[in-house]
Design brief:
Length: 118
Amino acid sequence: MLLIWNRPGFTEELTESERTALFGEVDEIMKELTETGELVGGQALANPSQTLTVRLAGGHPEVVDGPFMESKEQFAGYLTVDCDSPQRAAEIAARWPDVRFGGAMEVRPIMDQAGTEM
């Protein structure tokens, strides 16, 4: 799984042509992954202001608004790919345009049902 981390609102700071180019790159990568059969799925996430977080407080689960993390980056979406190797997944992640704008792509294996990867 490729986890997409970026700075909230960075696309609003881009010019119209920069935004068009960025989304064009994403479309190009997605088309390639679809054609090679490596794309399993993926989705962008809504703004963090719509997030609810559940934590244990006073021995009971408590639901609060937002992630409220001490971070300049937010978890913005994910891609699930079926690749030959972790290195191939990292190659795909390195091409993701958000990385050039201060974001990051986290590459993590998905556990199978047996959970033997832990």
